[in-house]
Description:
Blueprint: H1 39-52, H2 58-72, H3 77-94, H4 99-109
Helix pairs in contact: 1-4, 2-3, 3-4
Amino acid sequence: MAGDHYTQYGHGSIGKASHSGSGDIVAGGKYVGGSTPEASAVEKLLEEVQAMRQHLDDGDRAEVDAAVEEIRENPSEERFKKILRTFSGIATLIGEAGVPVIAAVKALLA
Length: 110
């Protein structure tokens, strides 16, 4: 519209998006070329990660907590996959208590 002013900051910023009609608007989507993970699968992972926390030392717990916060902020697909690798690596090191996390990560990567 005339007189509107938009300031854009950050990678992937598109300013203003308008939509009329049917269909989706996709501009600068975070999962371009891939599929967006289902919210229920991500929530399942976060539940399993929360259960795993009790088996972690302070350093690993802090790393997991930071990764959980990043997931809640909807990271890029590349960063999301790196976070999944972090979770699965820590889960592998703690053994049996990490198996549900590994299964949830595998479900998201499938």
